[in-house]
Amino acid sequence: MGVYCDAYDVDLSECEVPDGGFHSFDAFFTRRLKPGVRPIDSDATAIVSPADGRIEAAGIVDSSARLLIKGCEYTVGELLGDEEATAALTGGFYFVVYLSPRDYHRVHAPVAGGVDRVHHVDGTLYPVNDIGVRHVRSLFARNERVAIHQDSAEHGRTCTIMVGAIGVGRISLSFDSTVISNSSLPTGRRVYAESGRPSIERGGELGMFHLGSTAIVFVKPSARSEFVRSIGDSVRMGEAVIRETRA
Fold first, then answer.
1. How many whole angstroms separate alpha carbon 196 and alpha carbon 181?
2. Catalytic amino acids?
3. Whole-structure pTM over 0.85, yes or no?
4. Which of 4, 22, 199, 227 could lock onto 27 through a cystine, CB 3.0 to 4.6 A?
5. 32 shares its domain with 123
């Protein structure tokens, strides 16, 4: 682990390190942060970054439900693997956070709200770094991914997609251990009854990558919101990416 930390400049001072150190590379990679090192933005209406990383793309989904990520056009439906969910997000905001090998690799909720469904989309595992994005067309719609749908009181329909990548042994969810990625038996769609929906606070843990990858956030349209981060910015989990404008 020491060689990896030196090579990628990993800051372990922010992490909970077990007595005797990490027992495996996976335990190191999915390490937890110490309490309080990622404060959640105090504005309850802010949509926060779900992860540490770099904002690779951001914008508005157009009226035909299309968007651009690193110069490649996608539709909301193909990214979600769910055409039925497209209408609620058309015209809304989206942003993409790339997690590098040095980053903390747990993914958190950008908004507060109950999870009403999860869709595990089977696929390939191309690398999601600049080389992969540049050379593999429609990469984010081809890689294995898990879409987590929340219903937020403040923001309505919100979706966070965890996109797998080369070397990612698993994407695991913190609230449902039955969703298994990188498996010969894809989980498919899980719909939670209203009485049994996992309730996740803003900044609450959704899941983790077992190696580096990408998170994509979709938020329904809002005329009163604007981006407060730009493409290329480094961002930490809990920092505001979209904020309501004040009248």
1. 22
2. 52, 108, 213
3. yes
4. 22
5. no
